[in-house]
Amino acid sequence: MIPIDELSSVVLEEAIGIHREFGPGLFESVYESVLAGRLRRRGLKVDRQLQVKAVFDGEVYDPAFKIDLLVDDRLVIEVKAVESFNQTHAKQLLTYLRLLKQPVGLLLNFSGVTMKDGIRRVVNDYRPH
Question: In this structure, is the dihedral angle defined by the CA atoms of residues 32, 15, 97 and 45, taken in order, positive or negative?
Answer without folding.
Answer: positive
